[in-house]
Amino acid sequence: MQRNGGGVGAGGQPWVLRRVRLTWLSFMLFFILVFFPLIAHYYLTTIDEAGGPDKRIFGPRPGGELCEAKHVQDLCRIRESVSEELLQLEAKRQELNGEIARLNLRIEACKRSIDSAKQDLLQLKNVISQTEHSYKELMAQNQPKLSLPVRLLPDKEDPGLPPPKSAHSCRLRSCFDYGRCPLTSGFPVYVYDTGSYPWGDYLDPLVKQAFAASVKGNIYVTDNPSIACLYLVLVGELQESSSPLPSPSELEKQLKALPYWRSDGHNHLLVHLSRKSMTQNFLYNVSTGRAAVAQSTFLEQQYREGFDLVVSPLVHALSEPNFLEVPPQVPVKRKYLFTFQGERVESLRSSLQEAPPQSFEEEMEGDPPADYDDRIIGTLKAVQDSHLDQVLVEFTCKNPRTSLPTEWALCGEREDRLEVLKASTFALVIAPGDGQLVASAGCGMRLFEALEVGAIPVVLGDHSRLPYHQFIRWSEAVIIVPKPRVTELHFLLRSLSDNDMLAMRRQGRFLWETYFSTSENVLSTILASIRTSIQVPAAPIKEEPAHEIPHKAGKLAGTDANLADNGDLDLGPVETEPPYASPRFLRNFTYTAADTYRAWNRAPGPFHLFPHTPLDPVLPSEAKFLGSGTGFRPIGGGTGGSGKEFQAALGGNVPREQFTVVMLTYEREEVLMNSLERLNGLPYLNKVVVVWNSPKPPSDDLLWPDIGLPIVVVRTEKNSLNNRFLPWDAVETEAILSIDDDAHLRHDEIMFGFRVWREARDRIVGFPGRYHAWDVNHQSWLYNSNYSCELSMVLTGAAFFHKYYAYLYSYVMPQAIRDMVDEYINCEDIAMNFLVSHITRKPPIKVTSRWTFRCPGCPQALSHDDSHFHERHKCINFFVKVYGYMPLLYTQFRVDSVLFKTRLPHDKTKCFKFI
């Protein structure tokens, strides 16, 4: 028990001791941690105080003493630097606060000045508007007020004007009622129905049918006789009939019985169209009153100079001339120098007193001889027998045509005569021996056939009146020789140069094709002659209506920096105004006194063009050249001179002008959209006309780019490349940029081409050049697209041309050419080059482009086909046959910008700003 208790006691005593020791250890640790630092601090403080202030070791010290410590000197320097920077920043902050305050004051002042400027601008606009209104009022006060002339429309029983002294003295001033034909009337013509008068049954059926067809398509014909300016009556050709013709007195009664004859027949035109060389002078000894007469045969006592009209015979009544049968105009010299085939029906020599023949000198000194025909026969036979030149003269015929007395009858059939004329350089036309016969159908027939096949007519007899001699300058196509000079005829013909003969042959072809070739041309020429004589402007040719396809525009198109970059090309001020059309009818009706004669008597040349209606070269947008339509006079140069004025005028004669882009496309929507986007921001662009050549309309979900200008999508009747050159009424500018839908042109290239065109408005101005070549081995023409120093064509895939040529291409150019374009779906660009070169006798102008105008990523085009070039070879040869010669002209001329591809420093470009 004690051991156990002792064990407990012994074991308990160490536990108590351990507890006591732990408590003591904790107390000591607390004392050391708490009281020892306090005691140490107190002790140290007491030592510093006992040693004096100079003996302080741990207490605080002055700044200088502390900085003397080596280890804190760097820290002191940093502190001083930071303090200095803080002071500087504070100064800057205060300065910026002051500047902000000053700027706020200036902003407030600017806002007040902007509000004031807006008010001043509004007031200025009001002042300008009032000034313009005042200017208009002032101009209205200083200018007379114009009104349409009063039309005098007499009643049916109107007694008419006072009768002239004699029927032979009738002239326009005395026998024509100008009151029925004001300048603004449009020249309405009323045509009598051939079945409404008695002699209508005697008319040749072919003539009646051709006349009716021509009248139906004429733009001047009206069905309202009360407003008519001219009344047209067909009196011949008469058919061969056993029925007796009415006597002159009966015919006069029948004429007076016409519904609108009005007692004297003023403003009536009696038309006699001859189809035979022997045609009856139906109106001889018939008093026609104040009615004018248009026919091929006139006696001197019957013809009223300046009032009646000598017309051409109607050879092709219902058929169109076949241009492929017309011989070419080259070579100039043919087999025979001159030819003549004819037989004299009756000579006046038999009715004259027999007398010994006189020499030409004796006859000229005395009275003029009655008949030179015998002298002519002897002279021509002597030339033939001399064998100096090969000539063909025959004065007897196996089958002579019936002709008038003293007139030379035609020999054989028309086809036989044409074969002889095709081999003749010159064709003699001997005027009737009777000087009283001033015009005859036989001579008109000879003249027509010679012009048709390109034989230069030589008229022996200056007393004859050729068709429309008041308006046509026949001396440019016909050699007129008085009969006394027959002995000098051979010398005269030999002295002509090849250039002169070719010019006369080309002029003769133009006269025949324009005025005589068809019944429509004959009727149009007759009406145009009367209309121009009374100075009534011609009606404009109708434009092609553009039936627009609705489309919706998408987002605003972007601008390619490469395409829109104008580089160093400065073309003058860029118009920022909305699109505007070219000015029209600047000269109005003044052309009749200034340019009528000159415009009528020129073949296609550098300064005169002619539309479809003979003698009616009037087009809506060309009135600015020669009034409201007497022709087209290309104007070069500019209203400014050189330097800044020329640059501001941009070339041409109009300081402000724009152009229209015409783009032909066919089922290439993506390519088309890209091309349209490239036109965004193009200066001087009026609008874009997209000719949609596909029968399938555009996709409904197709979004067209918004280029800031109108895009007119035109629906076409058929897929034809000729649609590219239709004179669309949507085109309101004179300048047309014809461009393919896959063409790439920079803006500066287009602008420079536009400037060049304005200085040569009668030419095709474009970028891709081509030329034609003669194949000696195959004796034919070839189309060549290789790069060469020469060119004769500029393709219309990227070219400027005048809208006038759109009218000529669509309405004047032979239909056979347009048919071939449709057949091959090719060659429309070649056809346009042929036309312009034929009209102007000038080559096109190539403008250098800075890069290729083709689209490298576009789908395959028609030109990539192997048959493309073979078709173009055929086209050229066919066009040459139609025109009769090769109108294309070579040129090595090319137009570049003054600074084309010239790299200039930026500080030097200002020196060339106005070049």
UniProtKB/TrEMBL annotation:
<dbReference type="GO" id="GO:0050650">
    <property type="term" value="P:chondroitin sulfate proteoglycan biosynthetic process"/>
</dbReference>
<keyword id="KW-0812">Transmembrane</keyword>
<dbReference type="GO" id="GO:0046872">
    <property type="term" value="F:metal ion binding"/>
</dbReference>
<dbReference type="InterPro" id="IPR040911">
    <property type="entry name" value="Exostosin_GT47"/>
</dbReference>
<dbReference type="GO" id="GO:0048538">
    <property type="term" value="P:thymus development"/>
</dbReference>
<comment type="pathway">
    <text>Glycan metabolism; heparan sulfate biosynthesis.</text>
</comment>
<feature type="domain" description="Exostosin GT47">
    <location>
        <begin position="185"/>
        <end position="496"/>
    </location>
</feature>
<dbReference type="GO" id="GO:0106015">
    <property type="term" value="P:negative regulation of inflammatory response to wounding"/>
</dbReference>
<dbReference type="InterPro" id="IPR029044">
    <property type="entry name" value="Nucleotide-diphossugar_trans"/>
</dbReference>
<dbReference type="GO" id="GO:0005794">
    <property type="term" value="C:Golgi apparatus"/>
</dbReference>
<dbReference type="InterPro" id="IPR015338">
    <property type="entry name" value="GT64_dom"/>
</dbReference>
<comment type="subunit">
    <text>Homodimer; disulfide-linked. Interacts with REG3A.</text>
</comment>
<dbReference type="GO" id="GO:0001888">
    <property type="term" value="F:glucuronyl-galactosyl-proteoglycan 4-alpha-N-acetylglucosaminyltransferase activity"/>
</dbReference>
<dbReference type="GO" id="GO:0016500">
    <property type="term" value="F:protein-hormone receptor activity"/>
</dbReference>
<keyword id="KW-0256">Endoplasmic reticulum</keyword>
<keyword id="KW-0464">Manganese</keyword>
<keyword id="KW-0175">Coiled coil</keyword>
<feature type="domain" description="Glycosyl transferase 64">
    <location>
        <begin position="659"/>
        <end position="900"/>
    </location>
</feature>
<dbReference type="GO" id="GO:0045617">
    <property type="term" value="P:negative regulation of keratinocyte differentiation"/>
</dbReference>
<comment type="function">
    <text>Glycosyltransferase which regulates the biosynthesis of heparan sulfate (HS). Initiates HS synthesis by transferring the first N-acetyl-alpha-D-glucosamine (alpha-GlcNAc) residue (GlcNAcT-I activity) to the tetrasaccharide linker (GlcA-Gal-Gal-Xyl-)Ser core linker. May also transfer alpha-GlcNAc residues during HS elongation (GlcNAcT-II activity). Lacks glucuronyl transferase II (GlcAT-II) activity. Important for both skeletal development and hematopoiesis, through the formation of HS proteoglycans (HSPGs).</text>
</comment>
<dbReference type="GO" id="GO:0010838">
    <property type="term" value="P:positive regulation of keratinocyte proliferation"/>
</dbReference>
<comment type="function">
    <text>Receptor for REG3A, REG3B and REG3G, induces the activation of downstream signaling pathways such as PI3K-AKT or RAS-RAF-MEK-ERK signaling pathway. Required for the function of REG3A in regulating keratinocyte proliferation and differentiation. Required for the inhibition of skin inflammation mediated by REG3A through the activation of PI3K-AKT-STAT3 pathway. Required for the function of REG3A and REG3G in glucose tolerance in pancreas.</text>
</comment>
<dbReference type="GO" id="GO:0031290">
    <property type="term" value="P:retinal ganglion cell axon guidance"/>
</dbReference>
<keyword id="KW-0808">Transferase</keyword>
<keyword id="KW-1015">Disulfide bond</keyword>
<dbReference type="GO" id="GO:0051897">
    <property type="term" value="P:positive regulation of phosphatidylinositol 3-kinase/protein kinase B signal transduction"/>
</dbReference>
<keyword id="KW-1133">Transmembrane helix</keyword>
<dbReference type="GO" id="GO:0033564">
    <property type="term" value="P:anterior/posterior axon guidance"/>
</dbReference>
<feature type="transmembrane region" description="Helical">
    <location>
        <begin position="22"/>
        <end position="44"/>
    </location>
</feature>
<keyword id="KW-0479">Metal-binding</keyword>
<dbReference type="Pfam" id="PF09258">
    <property type="entry name" value="Glyco_transf_64"/>
</dbReference>
<keyword id="KW-0333">Golgi apparatus</keyword>
<keyword id="KW-0325">Glycoprotein</keyword>
<feature type="coiled-coil region">
    <location>
        <begin position="72"/>
        <end position="141"/>
    </location>
</feature>
<keyword id="KW-0735">Signal-anchor</keyword>
<dbReference type="GO" id="GO:0045743">
    <property type="term" value="P:positive regulation of fibroblast growth factor receptor signaling pathway"/>
</dbReference>
<protein>
    <recommendedName>
        <fullName>Exostosin-like 3</fullName>
        <ecNumber>2.4.1.223</ecNumber>
    </recommendedName>
</protein>
<dbReference type="Pfam" id="PF03016">
    <property type="entry name" value="Exostosin_GT47"/>
</dbReference>
<comment type="similarity">
    <text>Belongs to the glycosyltransferase 47 family.</text>
</comment>
<dbReference type="GO" id="GO:0030516">
    <property type="term" value="P:regulation of axon extension"/>
</dbReference>
<dbReference type="GO" id="GO:0005789">
    <property type="term" value="C:endoplasmic reticulum membrane"/>
</dbReference>
<dbReference type="GO" id="GO:0015012">
    <property type="term" value="P:heparan sulfate proteoglycan biosynthetic process"/>
</dbReference>
